[in-house]
């Protein structure tokens, strides 16, 4: 383990590109790519990696919810993953969907799920191999385990209670989305919400501030400075993070809970697409804090 | 073209996708991502004129050219790491390039809904294809109107003439696209 990783609260949740390169043939390890772009895996993936698509594999096709226990077990079994498998998730754009896939697998309590620090970008930038060869893995048996929505997932009612209790909320979207201005841009696709703004009292820390330009996470000292010194959060706080549909806030959930060791962090996956469309929920338009940063 | 009928080639592509089983639709989209021709040299050399949109999504550019015969030429520029967006561009290029301005303008933005792509591409991203078409149509409409307007104030040019000033003006032609994401 590198010095950087050993500083995190749960260093076992991250692997380096070097580690992964050395473990591609390890039968205990299954590499899973989760991308924003549904075709990216097909253009080339880490040798042996399976594809887990956030839309087709993790979300229920009818109801707005995650797959149920049976579907999750089937998805994992079809990729040759067992309950004992070490899953290493990686993906495009700073691992945002990879973090989401890891978060969903945590809802089902998969014991050993990790992120590749730096994701697809770093692997490619280091000149490591990609292949378009179709990965063939023998089907496995994966148990049907209940999904636990109580510990790391928040619903609208939880957020309302958080607002009333003045507990910390982190809005991880861009400053333009936070302020509400993005919904009013002319000529651009509808972003899926009727009202713009943010949950009252939420502080804006764009998710990507936790990452370096090469896609890796910042050091534990830098993350503490950002979330604890600057934002004033404490590891004992009860925190809810949200974005638009919960993928960027999965990234922040990972940072706060796994890298900084916060005890109680929930991801509100309904996020702005639910809140900005819900009737009679409070919305704040002016910034709740100092001027937000310009990062998206 | 009458009613809501699509240009023939685009109609064929829509049917091709609709007839495929779900998992092969993704493969077909990948095929179309490879059908986007590279920018012609004069446009590729003029990248400084491209206006990039600094959003967190893929930068994507589109240009149109109105030929003298009234047909529309389409140009796309999307990075290789955005194959889905390139796939959308490939469908529009194959389906609409060389069509008349009238046919392009008559193509409904909802043309893709019967392709069955919603099973493999998330709804918000899928709307990107409508956004691309909408942007193309806006450009074409502006060029057609500009051509007509100039003909009105320049009667000497004759009714069929399309002013050279509106043919392939690169910096004018480029418009930025924002890809929608999750």
Describe what is shown at a glance:
Chain A is α/β, with parallel strands linked by helices. In chain A, 31% of the residues lie in helices and 12% in strands.
Unreliable residue runs of chain B: 51-56, 157-182
Number of strands of chain B: 3
What series of H and E elements makes up the topology of chain B? HHHEEHHHHE
Order of helices and strands of chain A: HEHEHEHHEHEHEHEHEHEHEH
- Protein chains sharing the most extensive interface: A-B, 25 and 32 residues
Percent of residues in helices of chain A comes to: 25-40%
Structural class of chain B: mainly alpha
Distance between the termini of chain B: 35 Å
Instruction: Name the overall outline of chain A.
Output: globular
The percentage of residues in β strands of chain A lies in: 5-15%
Cα shape of chain B: globular
Q: Mind summarizing the main beta sheet of chain B?
A: 3 strands, antiparallel
Please describe the topology of this protein.
The complex is a heterodimer of chains A (296) and B (182).
Chain A: H1 3-6, E1 14-15, H2 17-22, E2 29-33, H3 40-43, E3 50-51, H4 54-58, H5 69-78, E4 86-90, H6 96-107, E5 113-116, H7 119-125, E6 153-154, H8 156-164, E7 169-171, H9 175-179, E8 203-204, H10 220-230, E9 238-242, H11 247-259, E10 264-268, H12 271-275
Parallel strand pairs in A: 1-5, 2-3, 2-4, 4-5, 6-10, 7-8, 7-9, 9-10
Helix pairs in contact in A: 6-11
Chain B: H1 8-19, H2 22-33, H3 41-44, E1 59-66, E2 72-77, H4 83-96, H5 101-106, H6 123-153, H7 170-173, E3 175-178
Antiparallel strand pairs in B: 1-2, 1-3
Helix pairs in contact in B: 1-4, 2-4, 4-6
């Amino acid at each position: 383990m590198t010095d950087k990783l050993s500083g995190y609260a749960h260093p076992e949740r991250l692997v380096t590109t070097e580690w992964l390169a050395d473990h591609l043939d390890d039968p205990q390890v299954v590499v899973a790519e989760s991308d924003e772009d549904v075709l990216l895996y097909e253009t080339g993936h880490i040798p042996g990696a399976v594809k887990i698509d956030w839309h087709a594999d993790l979300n229920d096709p009818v109801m707005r919810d995650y797959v149920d226990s049976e579907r999750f077990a089937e998805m994992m079994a079809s990729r040759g993953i067992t309950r004992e498998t070490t899953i290493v998730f990686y993906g495009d754009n700073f691992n945002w969907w990879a973090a989401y896939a890891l978060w969903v697998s945590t809802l089902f309590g998969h014991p050993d799920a990790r992120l590749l620090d730096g994701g697809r970008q770093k692997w490619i930038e280091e000149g490591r191999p990609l292949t378009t060869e179709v990965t063939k893995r023998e089907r496995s048996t994966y148990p049907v385990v209940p999904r636990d929505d109580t510990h790391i997932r928040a619903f609208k009612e939880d957020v309302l209670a958080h607002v009333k209790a003045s507990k910390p909320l982190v809005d991880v979207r861009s400053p333009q989305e936070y302020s509400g201005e993005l919904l009013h841009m002319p000529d651009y696709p509808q972003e899926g919400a009727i009202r713009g703004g943010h949950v009252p009292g939420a502080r804006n820390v764009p998710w990507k501030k936790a990452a370096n330009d090469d896609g890796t996470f910042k050091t534990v000292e830098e993350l503490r400075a950002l979330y604890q010194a600057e934002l004033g959060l404490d590891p004992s706080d009860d925190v809810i993070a949200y974005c638009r549909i919960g993928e960027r806030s999965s990234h922040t959930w990972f940072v706060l809970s796994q890298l900084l060791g916060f005890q109680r962090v929930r991801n509100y996956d309904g996020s702005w697409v639910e809140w900005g469309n819900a009737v009679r929920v409070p919305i704040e338009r002016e910034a709740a804090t100092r001027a937000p940063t310009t990062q998206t | 073209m009458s009613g809501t009928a699509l240009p023939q080639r685009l109609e064929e592509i829509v049917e091709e996708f609709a007839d495929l089983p779900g998992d092969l639709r993704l493969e077909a989209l990948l095929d179309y991502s490879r059908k986007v021709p590279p920018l012609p040299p004069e446009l590729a050399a003029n990248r400084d004129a491209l206006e990039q949109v600094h959003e967190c999504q893929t930068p994507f550019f589109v240009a149109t050219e109105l030929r003298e015969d009234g047909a529309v030429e389409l140009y796309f520029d999307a990075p290789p790491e955005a194959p889905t967006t390139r796939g959308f561009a490939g469908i529009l290029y194959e389906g609409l390039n060389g069509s008349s301005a009238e046919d392009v303008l008559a193509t409904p933005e909802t043309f893709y809904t019967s392709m069955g792509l919603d099973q493999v591409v998330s709804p918000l991203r899928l709307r990107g294809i409508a956004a691309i078409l909408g942007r193309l149509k806006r450009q074409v409409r502006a060029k057609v109107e500009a051509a007509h307007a100039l003909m009105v104030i320049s009667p000497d040019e004759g009714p069929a003439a399309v002013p050279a000033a509106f043919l392939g003006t690169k910096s004018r032609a480029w418009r930025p696209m924002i890809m929608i994401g999750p």
